[in-house]
Amino acid sequence: MAIVSQHKIQQQLHELAANAARPFVSWTEPLEDIDPVSFFMQGPSCGFRERFFWSDRSGSTIFVGLGSAYTIETEETDGRFHYVEQQRQRWVEQIERHGEADMPPLLFGGFAFDPHQPRTSVWRGFPAGKLIAPTVLLSVKNGRTLLTVTLPTDGVERDMERIGRLFRRIEELQPVSATLPALVSDEEEEKERWLAAVRQAIASIRAGRLDKVVLARSRRLAFTGTIDAAAVLARLREQQPFAYLFAFEQDGRCFIGASPEQLVQKEGEMCQSVCLAGSVRRGSSPGEDEQLGAWLQADSKNREEHQFVVHMIRRVFSSVCETVEMPTAPQLLKLPHIQHLCTPVVGRGCQEPSVLRLVEMMHPTPALGGTPRERAMEAIRSLEPLDRGWYAAPIGWVDADGNGEWAVAIRSGLLDVDKAMLFAGCGIVAHSDPTSEYEETNVKMAPMLSSLGVMSND
Ligand SMILES: C=C(O[C@H]1C=CC=C(C(=O)O)[C@@H]1O)C(=O)O
User: Is the distance from the beta carbon of residue 362 to the nearest atom of ligand 1 less than 6 Å?
Assistant: First the structure.
């Protein structure tokens, strides 16, 4: 049996486009279960220059997009979220939905961490904000798989050839190859320089200029051949089961990661977030692991670091929700390489109509920037020898109703043909120890290193 009725979809789209009253049409059709990473893998060879992958923490909501039917892009600084939200509303008015129309049109994308920071060539193609409505979207939600094709009514024919190629491929999807090229060089940005930046940050905090700042560093790897983003994604999926998996690729450059950190989710009048800050490695035995966890929960430096995030998120939620629920003490979130202090937050009666507005209010939380926010951003600009680009920034999706889910793009890296640049940061407070913070960044890079087939050497 054909997995997807190629002929039917193509015929429907032709007919719909001919009679459409709006500039875009979409057709949604149920699909048999297929491997979403294998689907993602088909993008480049079928001629799609853009592709994305999203899986939530439970793995029950997955979106894979190939190509771009509509792109919202901005280099604005202060007005970028507002601009993107306005364009989202315009997009919704331009599209006619058909087939299983319960699938609202979806935009996926991300934002730069700090649009005021000058962009280097490393992040070419990743502007201050960019959201894509894909030409072909695979969505898995509540155990149901759907395929949506979206096309401009005046250009249906243009995309048909590659859509046809994709349909033929998904009839007999090949499993994702686990082969990765070998590492040829591993260059971390100067350790001494980073440690000096952390010392300076601690001095500023002790002098009372700010309370907390998150400082990040990078590591550049080179390989013997092209890194296959689908293979990396398949390994992340296997190795990081409770993380948000994300990938955003254009013209062969792919920002990819497995983040444990939700920024915000909105579904109707309910919104959720997670305060995540304060970390320690996993133990090498159950006994040591438990001891480390108990130490983390009691450690005043980590509790302080965590508390700044709790205050800020509670303040934002309280300003837009009728009720806010959160536990009084942080819980432990145990991930394969690291454990974190974690406080989940639920808001009800949310007055904001779009998740993008919540993203704007939340970013950057003190888990990624610091506190007070503006002073921390200034400290990052002056102390951190790095172009963060989309690292530590919001990544996620929004639908036609303004609902959506966004993660913070940490535990991530940028793949560029045979090179990878990995990122990790740490919250610095008055009693931080620079060497331990450095070691913590190594632990935070371990998931990406492992997914690239490079063992972490800490
Ligand atoms: C900035 C990162 O982690 C943040 C999230 C959780 C715990 C953190 C910490 O304990 O420092 C960081 O705030 C990163 O992984 O690059």
Answer: no
Contact 210, 370 (CB under 8 A): yes
What whole-number distance in Å separates Cα of residue 423 and Cα of residue 410? Answer: 7
Does ligand 1 come within 6 angstroms of the Cβ of 425?
Answer: yes
Question: Mind listing the pLDDT tens digit for each residue in 393-404?
Answer: 999 999 999 999
**So what's the pLDDT on residue 156?**
83
- Where does the chain hold its CATH 3.60.120.10 domain(s)? 6-171, 183-228+260-451
Residue 71 CA to ligand 1 center (angstroms) comes to: 31
Tell me if 189 is assigned to a ligand binding site. no
CB 223 within 8 A of CB 27: no
Ligand 1 atom at shortest distance from the alpha carbon of 367: 13
Task: Examine the pLDDT at 2 and tell me if it is beyond 50.
Answer: no
Instruction: Name the amino acid, one letter, at 268.
Output: G
Fold assignment, 183-228+260-451 = Anthranilate synthase (3.60.120)
ipTM value, please give it. 0.99
pTM listed for this prediction = 0.96
Least confident span in 97-106, 185-194, 413-422: 97-106
Query: Which one of 259, 273, 279, 308 would you pick to mutate in the ligand 1 pocket, going by the greatest count of ligand atoms within 8 A of its CB?
Result: 279
What's phi and psi for 213, nearest 5 deg?
A: -145, 145
CA distance 110 to 263: 12
Q: Counting atoms of ligand 1 from 1, which one is nearest the CA of 437?
A: 11
Percent over 90 (pLDDT), the chain = 83
In testing the pocket of ligand 1, which one of 213, 240, 395, 426 has its CB within 8 Å of the most ligand atoms?
Answer: 426
Domain 6-171 bears CATH identifier 3.60.120.10: yes
